[in-house]
Amino acid sequence: MIQRKIFRFGVFFLIFMLPLCALAQKGEKIQTIVIDAGHGGKDTGALGKVTTEKALNLAVALKFGNYIKENLPDVKVIYTRSTDKFVELSERAAIANRNNADVFISIHCNSTEVANSAIGAETFVMGESKNEQNLAVAKKENAAILLEDNTDAYDNFDPNSTEAYILFSLSQSLYQNQSLDLADKVQKQFASKGRHDRGVQQAGFLVLWKTSMPSILVELGFINNTKEEQFLNSERGQTQMALSLYRAFEEYKREFEAENHVSGKPKANENISGKGDTYFAVQFSTLNKKVPVTDPAFKGIKEVAVYEYNGAYRYISGHFLTKAEAVTRQNELRNLGFKDAFIIAFINGERGTIKQAEEALKK
Predict the structure, then answer these.
(1) 265, 164, 270, 253: which is closest to 214 by C-alpha?
(2) Beta strand pairing status for 121-126 and 215-222?
(3) Which fold has domain 279-362?
(4) 165-222, pLDDT tens digit by residue?
(5) For the packed helices 235-259 and 53-71, what is the interaxial angle rounded to 10 degrees?
(6) DSSP string, 209-246
(7) How far, in Å, are 261, 272, 352, 355, 363 from residue 346 at the CA level?
(8) Average pLDDT of the chain?
(9) Where exactly are the structural domains of the chain?
(10) Hey, is 187 helix, strand or coil?
(11) How far, rounded to the nearest angstrom, does the alpha carbon of residue 132 sit from its chain's CA centroid?
(12) Residue 119 pLDDT > 60, yes or no?
């Protein structure tokens, strides 16, 4: 039974991964953030002795959003929930996607099987679970779908099946580097205030996989650790955690916008002009909506260009007169994580076969 569920989820994942990663078009400014207070309503999340995870998540999320509103008036703050209500995992991500959010931050609290056995805060990005602890955290957070009335959005994904999470390793998030940068800033802020730093981690969270912008999931601390629960349930603790999140976000926004407004910075051509041009290139991504070639998601990739073909936007790198040069670029892109990068050819500005391009270039 589990094998059948995993296979169905795998087909869904491979078919729809790229469209889900491409819904939002990112510009040169951070204008919208979606803050997600994990759990809510009938989904209490982890339990402490005197409080619940859903209550702590919401308290910190609202304070975090208020700091942004007070200090960064150019940023629109959207909450997935501002009260104690149940919101499906798929809807949390959909809220961010519908609003073309530039950043998504999901706030949670951790717990362990043995009380008082772990301390500290950690921040996750979407990726393959590197150890059993990370996998356990993802399973707990993803278990919220078992409380949903309609699980069609997850195509029978079993949140308790270890094997199902293997498929998450196939994900190549367009915004993974930016997510890692934001996560690192959050952890540094926590550590600067004396919180035990559990580092930046990767795991397969459904709520992150569905988003189409830099996204992180923050575990504020362990609610079943008596001292941590007392801290997180206090005004001082909630203020400290919310301020740390704000400072990390403000730093991320400032650096992002400064990098995108450097005067004299050369920009790649937005489109391929191509007429009378025969050459090889390497295609590394296909998206449903157009993203500027100057987007930071393409940082580190040389000579990015985009062309429209069969209703989708194809992103390529390079302009080579020999296939051998294209192979070198292909290897570079695969080392950057674009494992499916492949060589294509243009003949007089139109897509053609590699053989046709080789013959044309010999003339």
Answers:
(1) 253
(2) antiparallel
(3) Alpha-Beta Plaits (3.30.70)
(4) 445 544 445 688 889 999 999 999 999 999 999 999 887 777 787 788 899 999 999 9
(5) 50
(6) HT-SS-EEEEEEEETTSHHHHHHHTSHHHHHHHHHHHH
(7) 33, 10, 5, 11, 15
(8) 79
(9) 2-259, 279-362
(10) helix
(11) 21
(12) yes
Going along the chain, which residue ranges are E strands?
Answer: 32-37, 76-79, 103-110, 121-126, 197-203, 215-222, 279-287, 304-309, 312-320, 342-347, 350-352
By the 8 A CB rule, do 296 and 29 touch?
no
- Sort 197 into a burial class: Cβ within 10 Å, 0-12 / 13-18 / 19+: middle
Helix axes 176-192, 235-259, angle to 10 degrees: 140
Task: Name the one residue in this structure whose structure tokens are 């169905």.
Answer: 8
Helix (H, G, I), strand (E, B) or coil at 169: helix
Q: What is the pTM of this model?
A: 0.63
Distance of CA 44 to the CA centre of its chain: 25
Question: What residue has token string 């889900």?
Answer: 20
Backbone angles phi, psi at 246, to 5 degrees: -60, -45
Q: What is the mean pLDDT of residues 259-267?
A: 41
Q: Under CATH, which architecture does the 2-259 domain have?
A: 3-Layer(aba) Sandwich (3.40)
Task: For residue 35, list its beta bridge partners.
Answer: 79, 105
Instruction: Identify the pLDDT of residue 243.
Output: 95
Instruction: Give how far Cα 181 sits from Cα of 171, 250, 256, 263, Å.
Output: 18, 13, 10, 23
DSSP tag of 308: E
pLDDT over 80 at 38, yes or no: yes
Q: Is the confidence at residue 137, as pLDDT, over 60?
A: no
28: amino acid identity, one letter = E
Quote the CA–CA distance of 122 and 188 in Å, as a whole number. Answer: 10
DSSP codes joined into one string, 28-64: SS--EEEEEE--BTTB--SB-SS-BHHHHHHHHHHHH
Burial class (CB in 10 A: 0-12, 13-18, 19+), 53: buried
Location of structure tokens 């207070």:
37
β-pairing verdict for 32-37 and 197-203:
unpaired
